[in-house]
Prior knowledge:
Blueprint: H1 10-21, E1 28-32, H2 39-51, H3 73-80, H4 91-97, E2 104-107, H5 125-134, H6 140-146, H7 158-168, E3 178-183, H8 196-200, E4 206-212, H9 220-223, E5 227-230, H10 236-246, H11 251-261, H12 265-273, H13 279-293, H14 295-306, H15 310-332, H16 341-353, H17 356-374, H18 379-385
Parallel strand pairs: 1-4, 1-5, 2-3, 3-4
Amino acid sequence: xxxxxxxxxxxxxxxxxxxxxxxxxxxxxxxxxxxxxxxxxxxxxxxxxxxxxxxxxxxxxxxxxxxxxxxxxxxxxxxxxxxxxxxxxxxxxxxxxxxxxxxxxxxxxxxxxxxxxxxxxxxxxxxxxxxxxxxxxxxxxxxxxxxxxxxxxxxxxxxxxxxxxxxxxxxxxxxxxxxxxxxxxxxxxxxxxxxxxxxxxxxxxxxxxxxxxxxxxxxxxxxxxxxxxxxxxxxxxxxxxxxxxxxxxxxxxxxxxxxxxxxxxxxxxxxxxxxxxxxxxxxxxxxxxxxxxxxxxxxxxxxxxxxxxxxxxxxxxxxxxxxxxxxxxxxxxxxxxxxxxxxxxxxxxxxxxxxxxxxxxxxxxxxxxxxxxxxxxxxxxxxxxx
Length: 386
């Protein structure tokens, strides 16, 4: 993956490139962001940049110092521009993009294939490559479902830590660096203590990239040995542009999805699967049944909601929550972030009908409902109670 394949995140990309170009790359980096912000994609892009044969991360392609005299500004610019991203064409880039580069290793949560088995990431390497090709912005739930974990809890085992120590003490095969990308180090637990000495005193030209979502679940001893890179949420305009270019959807729909996703690209892609659903009309019918048309219509609409499935119910609740958030912003006198006139109009009407405390109370109840939907509550009972 190249940096140019990732929407937005311009400042973070520049920071990573400058660290490599100026030889200020720490031996251990911690990428921290919330779900769907592209931190794993950035880690993959950085690893590819480092092993690329045509960038400053390659042993054969270290940039020569630019002379202070005798060069035009255009010549200097030509020398700098090719270094801001991996080429995507050399042998190192092709192997890295296919996740088969011998000097880039991956660690991620796994489950035992058989009872009593002690699993390692390498046992699932083929599934990992397929998953990253299909869902580069997926979360741990998506990954565990991809490997048919069902209700099993994935983790990074003690055996995995020993395998990491063994691999990172080997000499590199092709590139200057040996790189380990560990996704979700929160699932290390106490086993992570086995990696402390390796992270603190790594072999020469070794790079650890930890990609996490919750710093409070990480071992403090590991956090203290890493350089923190905070990855911000995607800007709505970046998600909008990516949806238009990569998914081929029209601008109005892209604007709506980018606002509803609130900086989470995975959420935007999830909502895209349900974008044909008319949540606006369903929500208006439901609210009218509560306030005007009466219980008989309400029962009919709730029966309809109960049949659409858990994922769509979550999307429906999220849509309602977003509109209420816009209404709260209107009452608080802050700018409305939605560019969709339909959403803005609906939010404005609700802000006139409800007091601020009522809007906040409804949002609170919707959050609880989403929590129960995820835990497979009876839909009819849940939405009647709501």
